[in-house]
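Hey, I'm writing a tutorial for new members on how sequence and structure tokens pair up, and I'd like a real worked example in the thread rather than a made-up one. If someone can provide the structure for the chain below, I'll link this post from the tutorial.
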Amino acid sequence: MSGPLTQRWNNSLAARAIIFDMDGLLLDSESLSYETYVATANRYGLNAGFDSYSRMIGLNMIEGVDVLRNILPAHIDAMNFKDEWGEHYRERLADTVPVKPGVADVIERLAARNIPMAVATSSQGEKARDVLGRAGIAAHMLAITGANEVERGKPAPDVYLATIEKLVTISGITGVDDCIAFEDSEVGVRAALAAGLRVVQIPDLVPATKPSSPPFHLIANTLATGVGWLKIDT
């Protein structure tokens, strides 16, 4: 994005804190999730494709299972499928945590400036804290909130609202207007906007289907580019 456009948005993108999604944004875990989804489907003799998987991107576990019930043949139990898929995914994730290229550098540069950061994810909180800890990212986050720790997962705003509340308590920011969210999925963007946040979307496996609508919703090619647009007040 050009310099003049960045300058035009600087006031709208002023922020004191940043809230990140995790899967597909900080971690290249959506690709791994898709691979293990296909492998699990193959065990059941199914030929699963990306179209069916993409319907679950960004959703919490409960809503993801509801999608599975609509996708799978009637004789296959969606919960059993989800459990087998999850076990296969965790086995693969135990070997290595796939951090997105450039993410570690962005996080370290923000941490060096003492920018309050947090994570609001559709994954379970315990899992998120584990994988982000092994990735060397958790130590830089003031809060990590999982979908199982709030009443409703994304696209509801609950996980973002809970994370903002934690940041207000821990970092001294005044509220939602001090924060910017970063997301990869349409579901996550909807959750952030519903929480009253401005959001920068960095699409992962699925391209953005809606154009930017500054200052509330912007689209960047990389996390580094999106963070570079911010005017951060310290």
